[in-house]
User: Fold these one by one.
Assistant:
Number 1:
Amino acid sequence: MFKRLFFLALISFNSYADLRATGDLGVVIERAEGSALIINHSQNTTLAKIKDLGDLSHASVVFSRDQRYAFIFGRDGGLTKIDLLKDKVAKRVIQAGNSIGGAISQDGQFIAVSNYTPGGIKIFSTESLELVADVPAEYGDKKLSKVVGLVDAPKHHFIFSLFDAGEIWVVNIKNPEKPIIKKFKNSGKQPYDALLSPDGRYYIAGLFGEQGLALLDLWNVDQGVKRILPDYGKKDEKLPVYKMPHLEGWAMAGDFMLIPAMGQHEVLVIDKRQWTLVKRIPVAGQPVFVMAQPDGRQVWVNFAFPDNQQLQVIDLKNLSIIKSLTPGKAVLHMEFTPRGEHVWVSIRDDNQLVIYDTENFKEIKRLPANKPSGIFFSSRAYKMGL
Amino acid sequence: MFKRLFFLALISFNSYADLRATGDLGVVIERAEGSALIINHSQNTTLAKIKDLGDLSHASVVFSRDQRYAFIFGRDGGLTKIDLLKDKVAKRVIQAGNSIGGAISQDGQFIAVSNYTPGGIKIFSTESLELVADVPAEYGDKKLSKVVGLVDAPKHHFIFSLFDAGEIWVVNIKNPEKPIIKKFKNSGKQPYDALLSPDGRYYIAGLFGEQGLALLDLWNVDQGVKRILPDYGKKDEKLPVYKMPHLEGWAMAGDFMLIPAMGQHEVLVIDKRQWTLVKRIPVAGQPVFVMAQPDGRQVWVNFAFPDNQQLQVIDLKNLSIIKSLTPGKAVLHMEFTPRGEHVWVSIRDDNQLVIYDTENFKEIKRLPANKPSGIFFSSRAYKMGL
């Protein structure tokens, strides 16, 4: 009996000793295995591995407003709610046939998922993962469009783009069972991704089918969608684009927006007051992610194949490259610690995560990971438009 | 024996059931009683009350990078580390005779406290609260200045102002035992508070002894301290200033900085590219805190006595007031939820906290609190310059 008592006391003690805050946690996608690592970015350690998450070949993650749960959007339409305190799956549903990403509402109550098949978005309760609303992306003669560039926006809004229809839709889910949809037609040919400015004001979609970008000013929606940067895009039909740049990784810093020049070895610097081109910065390859450090001074860039072993750092003071690094084979993603002192980098073909000190570019640590791709820290819980 | 077994099992169960994420927690100062409430801003509830924290008549709070701990800086020089998962004091030291505020370093390893008596800052380990460095604010003939406007800044820096000396000091604590101090003399007469721009670039000190503001561009420290807004400040010697405005509450939003006009019933709108005055917005009283909603669209303003029963909301689109509220007697502080859907307001003389929906200005809930003053949410863990 004493043994059992001791055992129970031990359980009790352990569960107490395991108390875990959630401010410095993160999730790393292991794309090939369909698994995810829970990491701690204060200790630079892996805490747990969660398996059986389906096809994570193009996965993204958002976090509940309390940071306890990570929601993983899988390519196969799987939506998985991970409990970061218990290191396990809290709930998992297959919500569609082919999914591309998701977002969480400003108040944290709803998750929206954007789907290719069937084209549209579905809205779920974050609590139960039960379906709350289904918004098919219908256009023309009852056709369904692939949905891309889904973001949350202030005041109960989700915004997304219809790739096939060339439309931007703004959905108000204040009454989630009766979403109010505002459609902006003729927004541009084949929008392929989009971003929301960090202040929640501007929704900008990249266009694959034509040059320029589509801009919706959410403070002035009545003005409709405008075209900006008319020279931006894929000019030469024969120019190969090895990987579509991610707009979510575009850098908004001070007065500038830094974006990848599509198919070219350049980062473009845009003055975001007039949406005009300020400078073209030559870089080591076709940029994929162009990400601003949280302290606003530097922008980090990774590249498409065959230059994806490299990383470059742009100093915003002089708008020039101050550092080039070669972390390893196939640098896929970067994530900064919330205040920017470190950056985590996933190196798929070396099966590693590398952590750098952003002040001196020194390597702090390497951690093993199986074909890591996206890295997502719980600090995203507080950010709009992800 | 079975009873004891059951009891232990119960403890075990409870400690598990109590698992608590830290992303939606906050601390509310109860200034008269020297206590603090731990609150949850998803549930809009009070979780615990922590007593015996000394003189909290002018208290502020920062959070550890994992959001597990809140560090409370008391007026009496008390520095208390609260464990937000165990609802108790983890450690408490009396570090000086008269303290005014504090900051936590970018990497979360160090806490700095600014002191009036003896004038200077002291730097502590966040882990142990052991003293790591003592930086007396010595000037002139071995005199010690009161220290104000202490902030953390990127890359191992703390920055603060010397009220009596009229100096701004930038301290690098990369080697915390040998801090490197850069002193900017003649920075302006009697700096009384300061702020860091959210991107970590500009340190701006308000001046009590003369007009204008002192600006240090941290990207160009060699250019030294400049004076901006030369007409800003207390023009009329006889004009009473009922409460010194807090610079930490100045609003940076888009291209604008909104600041309280000292001693006047106005909020000033500054173009932060040229540091020029764009507009004066008449408001209901002498503004104290002028705070931008995280979604950047609105700015909330509270007031000094005798107008401190009011709150006003400025819309940034038209730079005009769109709402006036009268929450209760002595509105002291406001804190937005991380993505801005709610704002919490402390009403000292009504012994209440009021929670508003920022979309429609409706009251969501009132919670009891004993003479509440500052409200601090754990999302501050990720912010620079607090």
Note: The helical segments of chain B are 2-17.
Number 2:
Amino acid sequence: MKALKEKILQEGRLIDNHILKVDCFLNHQLDPQMIQAIGNEFASRFADEGITRILTIESSGIAVAIMAGLALGVPVVFARKKKPVTLEEQVYHSEVYSFTKKEQVDIFVSNDFMEHTDRVLIIDDFLARGQAALGLMDIVRQSGASLAGIGIVIEKGFQDGGRILREKGIRLESLAIIESMSCEGIIFSENA
Amino acid sequence: MKALKEKILQEGRLIDNHILKVDCFLNHQLDPQMIQAIGNEFASRFADEGITRILTIESSGIAVAIMAGLALGVPVVFARKKKPVTLEEQVYHSEVYSFTKKEQVDIFVSNDFMEHTDRVLIIDDFLARGQAALGLMDIVRQSGASLAGIGIVIEKGFQDGGRILREKGIRLESLAIIESMSCEGIIFSENA
């Protein structure tokens, strides 16, 4: 997605050559026009998949997912990282290990919002080692729903999450794939 | 906001007569069309305020805030409840006590995304005791920005958050104010 790559080059910042900081438009501050364009792009790429529900994870996935949901006309569910007091007993539960934060988090989705008849699109902001995507896929599997594919805003192509998911035969659409980042700059893969 | 009140009556559920569960369209699953209508309503009510930035708090405020930001054409910042590794030293920090969870959480906003020249609209999904709103207001105050007002989706009128904020002279726009809820149903205030 050309506009996204340009935005990353213009506004992204590298920290210690291995963390890409895009919190000026995606992770902390949100640029609504860009987020909508990203949501529309996911909707367009998955338009033929018969999506009935979008699944993401709090917090950074929510903005992109709701824009995709608006374009596709389907509800969006965000997995919770803490079980809220209002969430009842009947939940799907999985675990996600964060290499960045070096901690394991539990994720929860109410049984009410994922059914075996659903065709689910998973959306998230980043793909690195693929842990969040695998946790969300586990929840889709528990519900008996079918997985249409995964939409990622920025894939770190130099980490193994993308390879792991593609080898499982999953339709993975990353809008920007970063091949490498260093003091010399960010290089995108030709494959996105 | 009539459509919102109807949605609450149709899809909201009372738990133990004191917790309103609206996670089918606002807190866990999101109804994109309704969320957009809510965002548009905030944009319309604050259209004359010269808003330059919207401030909300993760996670449930994000979806509504981005729709308001899209309609107003301004960036949206969501306060973080944990300080991410990518967030640098220069942050505004405040504290929010959650009566529901019985815990204090720290909230953070990068200095980069709130300036003294900003005119800020705070948006959140619920207003009960007003703790989150007060924490966000504290961050606006630290930045030197001016506060245009606060937009709330559902105000619990039987708790004191609304009174506290209005007594401070703050422009508070709640799209639905619940006067009471019990086994006999939900009664809305005439003031919203």
Note: Chain B has five helices and eleven strands.
Number 3:
Amino acid sequence: MPPEKTLRRHALSIFRAALRAANPEHAVEAALALLPLNRYRRIFVVGAGKASAAMAHAAESVLGARITAGSINTKDGHLARLRRIELNESSHPVPDQRGVDGARRIAAIASSAAQDDLVICLISGGASALLPLPAAPITLSQKQQTTRLLLACGATIHELNAVRKHLSAIKGGQLARLAAPATVLSLLLSDVVGDPLDVIGSGPTAPDSSTFQTAWDVVCKYALQSKLPPAVRSHLQSGLAGGIPDTPKSGDPCFRRTANRIVGSNRIAVDACAARAKALGYRPMVLSTTIEGETRDVAAMHAAIAREVVASRRPARPPLCLISGGETTVTIKGNGLGGRNQEFALAAALALEGVPGVLVFSAGTDGTDGPTPAAGAMADGATVARAAALNLPAAAFLARNDSYRLFAPLGDLVTTGPTGTNVMDIRLLLIR
Amino acid sequence: MPPEKTLRRHALSIFRAALRAANPEHAVEAALALLPLNRYRRIFVVGAGKASAAMAHAAESVLGARITAGSINTKDGHLARLRRIELNESSHPVPDQRGVDGARRIAAIASSAAQDDLVICLISGGASALLPLPAAPITLSQKQQTTRLLLACGATIHELNAVRKHLSAIKGGQLARLAAPATVLSLLLSDVVGDPLDVIGSGPTAPDSSTFQTAWDVVCKYALQSKLPPAVRSHLQSGLAGGIPDTPKSGDPCFRRTANRIVGSNRIAVDACAARAKALGYRPMVLSTTIEGETRDVAAMHAAIAREVVASRRPARPPLCLISGGETTVTIKGNGLGGRNQEFALAAALALEGVPGVLVFSAGTDGTDGPTPAAGAMADGATVARAAALNLPAAAFLARNDSYRLFAPLGDLVTTGPTGTNVMDIRLLLIR
């Protein structure tokens, strides 16, 4: 029966295990360590994403002089010291010409690979924006204008992706087609719920299930036919008429020697939490790694499960560590300062007011939570009373989405600094 | 590995087990069967609630001629054939004079009980409105006016209850005080999340933690001092000055021989579900009996757990029956027809589209769900596609809260008719 302070120390220790498991350098090193290098004549490294520099650094440390050439697109300031792989800084989340130039170089390297060669592709969060290569003659600004038109109509992310993949020369499996007949090994750090290969970084090496017809149907659904830039419209119509090859589908020969491997993900991080919790003496129980939805309702349901454990030792007996992953959303109603993880902790604190022996922890694996310097926060059954003693009414802070200003004076923020990775959020409920 | 049809049959069978466990007649019979009747000189039966007639009927069938006298308040039309206990029909949810007359009779019977007597008190959902007894000289209409004033200011249910208990002559433990020094056995059918004794039926036989000061603080918080009916204001101020005894607190001598026993509740119903699921070959896992929150988010989290089971056999291996209780809310956004249980099934169906081997079930134990003739609905990974084939776009139906009009044509409604009980909702996810 560890006291409350120990629960907090344990939660931090369990979260650190998640960060280690999601570390992009460790993940790439482990994935490449057992590669049968002598099977390949030349090895190329390409990729894009906010963690691509760290991933490329790991590739260099394992492969060293075996790397013939390489090029990756990274976000401004997200750097690493590389010797053989070119590093192209570019803009995120709005792509720019530097990103296009880098993507063209990456496409050229992939195209140069031959039958006996290996192309290692390193993809992490942000790759969609960091690997822009509009299909000629479409320009970057025409592609962006199309995106804005779709967003303004309320198109879903799936609809948006179907159109964008069909305006790209590299997304939706087309990087794998450029690299064929070389072997392609894509190592993916997933920041998408459920780890869908065709969504992470817009799936440059994964089969695409959408078609030119899908893309055109989206355009027609929102009646954008005449509003599209003419180059975009004529590209989609050529594709529809069979004048341009569609993105490669599952079963396409270009995927015969392509492997997509998730090396970092929320699931992998959650597994590491479960192992660490077990080592600390808790029964680990993973609820789900795909939790989305409005943060305060998700928090209330987590709290309801914790209350049930306290009241009736169900769904499992304490000492228990409930673990959940994914990424929730916050509908902003006030002008407060906070993030989804701090709001989760605050909403759970209200639902667990006065309940003894339960610690709530929620933090983002990227080390940031909303526009705050914290990664998340911790709370327990005494949080609301401790805040009230400081004249901080918890319900009012939650009502205006002001979780940061409540947890900061309580000293209950979780602060890690930038972690160099992003596999969404980790939520823990420790129950003794 | 039962096929989908079997999953549906099993879900209905598990729900029926919940209804049996929450049956008010069975519950009262079981609670009274072992009573040492020869210890008491006289036995009185009082009570209120929508199920009080059924509960009184059970009391008569066990106690028969041992009942000296009795009186219960029930909702119009919620009747049973009684021989010894008077049945007072009255208005719900807005109380009326018939309710006051009945409550006065109930108070008189309780007051007549002596040291060696037993007062059995039968409380079920609706008792707050069905047992109105304003403290003299406050009138029913003055009390109702006070309630309306508080509601209009946005007072919480806890604030409302603190004030109302202090305008009543019977709520907040005062029925137990009237009956002292007799033994009081309260049998409660709980329709409140978490089964708090002081909230169910406004706790006529339970210690009250609120005081006249609490009540007056609420009045001041909403600046209602001068807006209250004068009789209400002067009653609260007399109480504040010590001129009227406060509601009895925990430790008050009047509770020395008082027992409050929950004989029907969501937890009891959920336990019965778990036992039935186990008998049918499922691993039962109770998530929580206190789940509240916005229905579609709660549904999404249930679906996320089910997806995790399918993907990684966590938090437990199939065949699994996830069970949760409580009562969610729906923020109405459209002009559709439905209820929280049907909306739960619809939101879960969207979140589980295409996922095989998962059946979702949600229904109200009172047999009704919103203004529809159904108690709830069932759904699975094929529901969205089956609806689409009938030209019923599931997402659009959810957006306008129109779950009934989707499930009715699919034949996936759960229909039980009135069940005579109410222990909130039961949600099941069967995963094979």
Note: The longest strand of chain B covers residues 67-75.
